[in-house]
Amino acid sequence: MRVLGIEGTAWAASAAVYDSDADADGASSSEAVFIESDAYEPDSGGIHPREAAEHMHEAIPRVVETALEHARDLQEAADEREARASGDSNADAASGPPIDVDERCSSDQQAAPVDAVAFSRGPGLGPCLRIVGTAARALSQALEVPLVGVNHMVAHLEIGRHTSGFDSPVCLNASGANAHLLSYRNGRYRVLGETMDTGVGNAIDKFTRHVGWSHPGGPKVEAAAEDGEYVDLPYVVKGMDFSFSGIMSAAKQQYDKGVAVEDICYSLQENIFAMLTEVAERALSLTGSDELVLGGGVGQNARLREMLAEMCDQRGAEFHAPDPRFLRDNAGMIAVLGAKMYEAGDTLEIEDSRVNPDFRPDQVPVTWRGSERS
Ligand code: ATP
Fold first, then answer.
1. Among 329, 337, 359, 360, residue to substitute to test ligand 1 (most atoms within 8 Å of Cβ)
2. What is the ipTM of this complex?
3. How confident is the model at residue 76 (pLDDT cuts 50, 70, 90)?
4. Would you say the pTM of this structure is higher than 0.90?
């Protein structure tokens, strides 16, 4: 089965093709999941919704066409293999009319190169989501294949579960616009804890904008932190919820007072990632799970991964962070979860397929866990 995924919740215009048969045959993740992305990079400041939508409008057709070309190549290769196999079996057959391979191939050429079209339904920026939704609906109708509406945050989680092979992990989603802990219970992913204000990446980006650094700020903070020393900043965890607004205001104030930016970056990382590690440990303890997966673009940070890995090691739990190409926004995770949903029959009628900028992960009935391929 091949599924086309389309992602465009904020900055990444991305299309991907997931080939579940190649995956089941042991292909590497880069062979089984083809991803083409085109990032929106603001000239100044943070992500501007109108500019991001203009980027989607311009880039989505291009990345989708590249992904579909790849799907057509896969389809052609599969057709050739099938034709060869059937040619061999015809040669072996003692009776019956020979199959006209040329005729069969030419009729197969009309077949859609994918079995379904999956798209990010939300959460995300409304103007961007609407462009992606329109593209996905049009493709589903043109290719005459089902439409699958994927929750972007559940996709961040599921790609970690898929690439780790873990059965029922706790997931820490550390992305730009979100930060929360999820765990599966009774047919849904439950939000065990979450940010009480901004997403973790957005919080870091707000500080770097104040400093005058270009978007995205996370990698720049990571690089600057290498030369820093600790200065005191707030640390706010309440149960399994947490807050970043106080720490961001304090970081800006320290910078305005002349504290070295490297020291602030170092301390931001230490505090923010320690907060996330503390709540992740609490979630493991509460659920009794011994598996943790990481999701989201901030998960590309080596210090965050180091803290989480160390915490898991100390409590005898397993930790998995997917490849960076699956952590930041990408259509690969949409295609992979889209395939699972399609296989479970979880498809959408066009009239029910509107996007939802506030789509929470705990609103999604998890239909696919009973019907997954091992
Ligand atoms: P969401 O998935 O919640 O919609 P998003 O669309 O903003 O969020 P992601 O791709 O998950 O996108 O994450 C982008 C964020 O990751 C940005 O805020 C960026 O600064 C941050 N980021 C990227 N690399 C790093 C890094 N090495 N360290 C810390 N943060 C990083």
1. 329
2. 0.98
3. very high
4. yes
